[in-house]
Amino acid sequence: MAPRPRAEARRSRTVDDVAAWFQWLHRSSGIKLTIFYDSYDRARYLKGLATTLELSAYCLVLSLALGALLAGLHGSSVRLVRGFVTAFVQLFRNTPPLVQLYFFYFALGPLLPRVDGMPLLGSFGWAVVSLTLLEAAFAAEIFRAGVEAVPKAMVEAAESLGYARWQVYRQVVLPLALRVTMPAMTNNLVNLVKTTTLAYAIAVPELVYMSAQIWSEQVNVPEMMVVLLISYVVIVGIINQAMQWIEVRLAVPGFGQ
Amino acid sequence: MTADAKACATRGDRLAVLLPVRTSQPARLGNIAPGVTTTRPWRIGVALVATFVGSLALAQVRGVPTQPGIVELLVKWTPLLAKGFLFNVLISIVAMALGTAAGALLGLARLSLFAPVRGGSWLVVQFFRNAPWLVLLFFVMFLLPFEFRIGDTTIPFPDWLKATLGLALPIMANVAEIVRGATQSIPAAQWDAARSLAFSRQQTLWMIILPQCIKRMLPPWMNWYAILTMATTLASIVGVSEVMTLTGRITNAEGRTDLLIPIYSYVLLWFFAYCYPIAAWTRRLEARYAER
User: Fold this and answer.
1) For A86, which of B44, B244, B260 is closest by C-beta distance?
2) What CA–CA distances, in Å, run from B223 to B8, B31, B162, B281?
């Protein structure tokens, strides 16, 4: 237990040093990066970052589930179901995401019943709903393409080995389809993170919203802009690296380059 | 189908080869692999319009007789909305022109033999592709002056032009990627053949490689145009009076909650009517070029 207080002291000293350096930077050059020395602004920035990541995570999980469901329904033998899926996908892909968000938040939002005087879904909830539906439309297309890329011969081989239909799907088609769709999925995830910025328009306290609050109070627009841009480029870079790592780990020998 | 896959097919499927994924390159709006639309495109449109008209009729029936009906209100505001929508189209066309011109240069810079130019252009492309559109828009809106002063003349720099510039930036980066991708898809043998015929590098690029690329670049370029058109609504967030801003003002002016769903669906339908044909056309061109 002895080294802990010392490590903590060292860390807080580093934080202090960083803060001091940025304060010095402000005094000497006028570059005002308050998030590094003002604890209130730092908390706001981190809250925005957390909200952006949270929003992305919710939308990712839900849109993958819904996308898989839609892709499955697209293979349905009922024409009406197929038509519904196609219409859903086309509608969400060919209309502006911002208008979709406004439609859900401003047009559908007031229709929901209120619980204890509070709306059932807040702006965060509606952002999740709207972005999930949008991303699901893309995910459905990607899944469908992935499933189609699995050769028929493989499915037939599995069937001839006595696999049941769902076993073929779960153990043969899905693992292969998952790997084929990885690059497109990475692309989709990056786009999802970038699209979460739209939630700013309905006052979800995500990164852009929080940064806007900071820059309107501290009047440091250029600095916060650069911070904001770098934040997103870093997030996207991390996602790209992580997905590439997963892709390499999952690679099946003998497929692809 | 790749050459290998084709060879396998002729050998009678001795090897189960994982077929290439058929999502189109930017894997974003519009573009869908051929074969997805089992229903004919116009049927989707008809179904959507029918749904819209149905909901309108419902709203009309449920409306209070003393107030003007929903349909009347929509008709009343249609000219204003149309004006706003045309503004969006104007922004999209200007931004696309600027983005394409800059992107073509940037794409060629990525092919440069001079490493710093190549590296620099790579950095620019990565940056503008990975930054969210809205953030770029804020960037341009806040950091550019509202007027330029050259000597004694003051050139005003209106908001909508700034927004257009902001939207052109991501387009520029993506067009550069399209240019690079297309030039890379030309077999290296053509470069070698051109060189053996004593074409200079510049001549090879202008007379042999790029003319073939135009055709390959067209579908993804159109796809990005559709994406850009949808992104023009972002300009409303930074205060440009385009169709979304006007819609907000109209709902405020009328102050009727039963108008909200119809008017937002109406705007959605406008965009769908504009973007869906582009997407369908893109798909058709892609399918046609894929056959060669």
Assistant:
1) B44
2) 33, 7, 23, 10
Is there a contact between B260 and B251 (Cβ–Cβ < 8 Å)?
yes
| Binary contact (B142, A100; C-beta < 8 A) | no
- How far away is chain A from the Cα of B191, in angstroms, using its nearest Cα? 24
Q: What is the pLDDT of residue A2?
A: 53
Closest partner residue to B21 (CB to CB) among A107, A181, A229 is: A181
- Yes or no: say if B290 and B34 are a contact pair by the CB < 8 Å rule: yes
**Across the interface, do A208 and B127 touch by the CB < 8 Å criterion?**
no
Length of chain B, in residues:
292
CB A89 within 8 A of CB A187: no
B141: left (phi over 0), alpha (psi -120 to 50) or beta: alpha
CA–CA distance, B194 with B183 (Å, rounded to integer): 14
Q: Which two tokens stand for residue B278?
A: 């582009």
Contacts of B142 in chain A (CB under 8 A): 221-222, 225
Which band of pLDDT confidence, cut at 50, 70 and 90, is reported for residue B7?
Answer: very low
B42 and A CB contact within 8 Å: no
Which residues, listed in sequence order, are joined to residue A115 by a DSSP beta bridge? A118
pLDDT for B108-133, tens place per residue?
A: 998 888 889 999 999 999 889 888 99
Query: Which bin fits B210, alpha (ψ -120 to 50), beta or left (φ > 0)?
Result: alpha
Average pLDDT in the A13-23 region? 79
Q: Taking every pair of C-alpha atoms in chain A, what is the biggest distance, in angstroms?
A: 76
End-to-end CA distance of chain B: 11
Residue A103 forms contact with B (CB below 8 Å): yes
* Element containing residue B154 per DSSP (H, E): strand B153-156
Q: For tokens 């499933």, what's the residue?
A: A147
Name the burial class of residue B90, with classes exposed (0-12), middle (13-18) and buried (19+) by CB atoms within 10 angstroms of its CB. middle
> Are the beta carbons of B16 and A233 separated by less than 8 Å?
no
**Residue A45 structure tokens:** 């920035």
Give per-residue pLDDT as tens, B140-197: 888 887 777 777 788 888 888 899 999 999 999 999 999 988 888 888 888 899 999 9
Measured in degrees and rounded to the nearest 5, phi and psi for residue B66 equal -75, -20
Please give the pLDDT value at position B171. Answer: 94
Contacts of A150 (CB under 8 A, 6+ apart): A172, A173, A176, A177, A180, B18, B19
Contact assignment for A184 to B135 by CB distance below 8 Å: no
Model-level pTM?
Answer: 0.80
Candidates B19, B9, B32; CA nearest to B276 is B32
* Cα atoms found within 13 Å of the Cα of residue B114, Cβ hemisphere only: 6
A232·B131 Cβ contact <8 A: yes
Name the residue among A150, A157, A201 with its Cβ closest to that of B237.
A201
3-state helix, strand, coil in chain B (%, to 5): 75, 5, 25
**Secondary structure of residue A8 in the 3-state scheme:** helix
